[in-house]
């Protein structure tokens, strides 16, 4: 191999490398594998509701009521737990990403060494060999039959010859020969990284859970101020009006009562549970070699109803194997044709297709060839000649049938084989010598045999596609290869695709494109821009779209999809824009990702009804007690303990339990359809009890004790209703909460701290009667709620929350 057009054939010196590193001319380009530390801290600490909680906490400390500031400690714990969980998830994901960092081979100080891809510098001499992935944009300086697979860039799997002066882009793969190339663009300037940087400008993955919770928080943020004024004014008048309350100091208790009402309205725990569920799901998937680059993507794939698959690297492994030989004239075939095939398979410079011949044909000629013409992607054939008198005498040509025989004499046979998804080559023979200088076909060629090759299908592809079909997820195959070949492979993995649609005939209008996409499953000759247009059209048609792929040519579509999924073997740009990366390239992980997402959605929907019920009844209580000028029936410390035992702690475990319920849109609507009427029942029950207790002359401490007991009973019942069916761990969770509440109401030290007193007969009777009526009303609400859910989910029992 001669190095032409190379100014420094020995490569850079150590001093030159150091100078470029100092100047920042390196291939370093940081791709965030997960959320940054700063974003995690901002998301968990700098929130509007943390601000409200912090203000209330400080007010109580200034008033000397530290006992009622327990919710502040709880809020701090929530923030710490949420941050720690996400930090742990980030550490696990970053570790996996680091383990899969690639390396590059460079020539420096006249020696070849391996360095990290990030350590490649401008003007480095890359040493490229078969199997290498080009780490940075470079210009070929020397080539010995160097061939690159640029399917990462174009989607087409045909090899491309590279000669000195040609440019190679990062992401392409050397499949034959060897060469050297001088790096011309590094880091953010390289082709792949420019694409990645452009794609990363897109917003966060769409999350129904996150957007629904944000809607609730926005509503609460709008009403919390007016309600605070209403409640505080009412509590002031309970203590005799503004003048009297400030003279007597009772305004302090009015402020405490107001804070109790406000804190109960804020569903802080719901935000925490969602973050924890996402983080735990991401860590569980990381253990199975699935890198989740954004936590909400765990939920996202569970919402997908259509998945677009690239053929190469997704359905197939990207490699080919020998299929069969088809002699064209067995009785008249020249001697030694199988020996010629054995030589093609064992040739050192053999490309990927020719290497497949080494196993079935192992008896190569005993004498070396007298001349040869190497394979070229432009002419799509190679040739070799052996001397007369040897066991493979004559000239042998191996290549594409239509290129070796332009007269299409083999069109019928070769097209029939290609239509079955097989790649076809022809072996031809001639007694004429080879002309190495003109690199032309020898005269009087006669076809000897057709050879078929097939792409290696991923062993898990058929099973995974069957899973998606069972789950009602539609599939579209979009590839840069021949439509008939792609359709044949699609049939191999179980898709009902009689033919493939040639993307060169696709309309540009999105509506017309969507119509074509609804009628066909397989598309070939698809350009990167068309892949993106297909995803856009499907989204506009109302689908939630996932896109898988491994090439740079897939990156535009992957970043446009609702959920982008990349293979670890794929291009850096593609992995950078994907939400999920399959680190071991196993397509069979996708069902597990779907199951994890469904668990998150189903469990968060369950616990959201607990938290939203509390928000509704807390808001109702604030409005009712403010409007009717009644003293708020709880101390903040009482609400903190009861909420923790009936909502917070059980919700933590319920959010992480197995749950295979199918995803159905409308999470917030279904949650509120239970939470609003149930919360209204709870608020009315507490209001009625407080009004009756006040009319019966029951004292302040006993009234609060009765209110807390009533809320405890109703809260436990709501927890039980939403946990049905009660089995396994749910029995332990609910039982533990009941034991905790027994401790709260029976241990003297705890009852003294919570200002509980023994209830009188009147209080006990009121609590019992109001509890029974409330429980009956909640059962009725749940009955109609389940009917509503089943009706909106087309009576699918697997969708029951």
From TrEMBL:
Pfam short name (any one): Hydrolase
Q: Spell out the subcellular localization from the entry.
A: Cell membrane
Record domain P-type ATPase A: where: 99-198
The membrane topology of this protein is: Multi-pass membrane protein
* Alphabetical list of InterPro entries matching this protein: ATPase_P-typ_cyto_dom_N, ATPase_P-typ_P_site, ATPase_P-typ_TM_dom_sf, ATPase_P-typ_transduc_dom_A_sf, ATPase_P-type_domA, HAD-like_sf, HAD_sf, P_typ_ATPase
Which regions span the lipid bilayer? 43-63, 219-239, 259-283, 616-635, 641-660, 672-692, 704-722, 729-749, 761-784
Ordered alphabetically, the record's keywords are: Membrane, Translocase, Transmembrane, Transmembrane helix
Query: Do you know which PANTHER family this protein is assigned to?
Result: CALCIUM-TRANSPORTING ATPASE
Instruction: Give the matching NCBIfam families.
Output: ATPase_P-type (TIGR01494)
Q: What is this protein identified as?
A: HAD-IC family P-type ATPase
List the source organism: Agromyces allii
